[in-house]
Amino acid sequence: MKPGHELLIVDDNPADTALAREALAECAYRGQISSVGDGVEALAFLTRRGKYVHAIKPDLVILDLNLPKRDGLAVLTAMKANPDLRKIPVVIFSTSQLPQDIARSYELGANCYVSKPGNLTEFFSMMKSIEGFWFGSVSLPPRGE
Amino acid sequence: MNTNDVDILLVDDSPDDVDLTLHALRAENLANRVFVARDGEEALDFLFCLGTHANRSFERPPKLVLLDLKLPKVDGLQVLKKVKGDTRTRNLCVVLMTSSREERDMVCGYELGANSYLQKPVDFDEFRKMVKTAGLYWLLINRPPVVKRAQQAAGQAK
Amino acid sequence: MSSAATQLETQSSVQPKPKLRTLMVEDNQLDAQLVLRALRKIDCEVSAVVVQDEAAFIRALRTQTPDVVLADYNLPNWKGMEALSVLRREGLDIPMILVSGALGDVTAVECIRQGATDYVLKDGLARLPEVVRRALREKYERGLRHKAEQDLAKKAEELTRSNADLEQFAYIASHDLQEPLRMVATYTQLLSERYRGKLDENADKFIGYASEGALRMQVLIQDLLAFSRVGKQDTCASVDCNDVMKEVRQTLSPALLESGGVITYASLPRVWANGTQVAQLFQNLVGNAIKFRGTEPLEISVSAESEDVRWLFSVTDNGIGIAPEYAENIFVVFQRLHTRSEYPGNGIGLAICKKIVQRYGGNIWVESHAGAGSTFKFTLPALRPDAPGKARK
């Protein structure tokens, strides 16, 4: 867990984002956490437009599917179509367990798909596993491209 | 082992690394359904249901492919390119696991659509820990794209 | 429906005489008059239009629809049987009776085969009224039957739609309810963990109750979802119940270990059903056996016997048993026999089992006495000999 990691959480539910932050704090994640609440904001952040002109490109995006304005799959598609963004790993983190949502996410280039659990213990443990794998084991693509 | 019932396809030509990986997976009870391919060609035969693996089905893919880069016959990046370039295999979870420290390899890997990229640690314990974390993550936490069982029902009722 | 046909059937003595409109295909005036006279016995106001060729026939049809067509077999400019083709072309369901000189049995039978309603010989016109009556009655009954079929089809369609709506409602309600419920559940749990002992003692208790309620609601909604989903999955296949039991054993292994229970099953058959539903069925029953165990070491056994097109399964345990007066009750949604502090659960497991079994036209029941263990019995379809192992929709 190197300090200096950048994580972007895209979720329209502030309660879930807050919970994610709590979980990450518990596993001593020392990097930055940015969060946005809809797909349009997400893409503005990632492309550093408007109020996000000083945003730092994240090392990892945790992406919910059900978002207002532009949904998760639209964000994913836009990311994978953008050479500047397409290498950023995307973890779909959604309550949906529908096979078609899962399949579609992979088709559009999601790196993995994690179901949002319904209770606290599992939620925390899930977030910790995500943090442990992506920021602990994985070699993340260099940011400055 | 029924090659249609494989959880992990491990593609690695180094016998030591294969042993270590299997050992680490076994410790987490994840080694029951691991198939080892020693070169890129066999990996492709396995995933594309060809040659000695013609009896395999595209409907029963492995949940995870651990793919080394330096392989005889066909190298890892070629395998990755073929897998991610074909609609039948594009959704597979392919995790590159290599001793290469070349940033170029990593960038290439992600460009080609690798689901993640792991650099094999030199230290035995670190290696085992990494395999354990990866195994648990991709087999237990991650939801793979295809429902494997014969009973394909829309929405699994508990 | 022809008014004459209806009127003939619903005739009462106070009603005015019904009208019988006939269309005759006849070139001989005298014959036509004889036929009309014979028809007067029907006790109707008989009117007739007489034509000799196809053009006139079609014109007459279009001017006023007759109740019955009476046609001579052989005319100088036309054939009586051609009238049948015209009727068919115009899409008219009007009985056609051949009124003819000597026809010969073979020809007569052939005409009827081709669609003529009946035939009457010109020197046997006394039969004509009865023949016409019968023809009109048959048409009336055909009409009734058709309407009944239409009504039935409509009702069936309404029922299907209503069922689909209900299932969709249950699905959406459960599905959409889960989201806000998840927030309540996770945050009450978080509150409970972070603030235990830090607020006053009532706070801990209150938060505990809220948390418990939320968790229970979650399980309830998931069970409701499962209940509403039964019937949504329509793909049936050959399901090996031994594989199912293996899976159930694995899923329930933590509970099994904890209870020290032993499951035995003899070589179980294959059934023709949806695999997920069969798994759920077995899992609910075995899960219950584990939950409602007694003081003796838990033993569960699963067996099956053939009933030709069905298999009769038995799941037997040596648990606390069920008093016979509750034997039917337990299959009702949300019916429970014990308090929540005695045994957890919300009483939907057996309702789901029943819904699944009934979906395949089977039955489920329990044979038990309090304190003497229980045997749950249910039937599932056997494999059909024509479809071995092939999945069909």
Architecture overview:
The complex is a heterotrimer of chains A (145), B (158) and C (393). Chain A has 145 residues and is of the alpha/beta class. Chain A is 40% helix and 16% strand. Chain A has one domain (6-134): 3-Layer(aba) Sandwich (Rossmann fold). Chain A has five helices and five strands; from the N terminus they run βαβαβαβαβα. The two termini of chain A are 22 Å apart. The model of chain A has no long low-confidence stretch (mean pLDDT 91). Chain B has five helices and five strands; from the N terminus they run βαβαβαβαβα. Chain B has helices spanning 15-27, 40-47, 76-85, 103-111, 124-141, and strands spanning 8-11, 34-37, 64-67, 94-98, 116-119. In chain B, strands 2-1-3-4-5 form a five-stranded parallel β-sheet, with helices on both faces. In chain B, α2 (40-47) packs parallel to α3. Chain C is of the alpha/beta class. The model of chain C is unreliable at 389-393 (pLDDT under 50). Chains A and B meet through α4, β5 and α5 of A and α4, β5 and α5 of B.
Average of the residue pLDDT scores of chain C:
85
Name of the CATH homologous superfamily of chain A: Response regulator
Q: What Rg of chain C, in angstroms, do the CA atoms define?
A: 36 Å
* Helical amount of chain A: 40-55%
Shape of chain C: elongated
Write the element-wise H/E pattern of chain C from the N-terminal end onward.
HEHEHEHEHEHHEHHEEHEEHEE
CATH architecture annotation of the largest domain in chain C? 2-Layer Sandwich
- Overall SS class of chain C: alpha/beta
Quote the distance from N terminus to C terminus of chain A.
22 Å
Task: Tell me about the largest β-sheet of chain C.
Answer: 5 strands, parallel
Question: What is the β-strand count of chain A?
Answer: 5
Q: In angstroms, what is the radius of gyration of chain A?
A: 14 Å
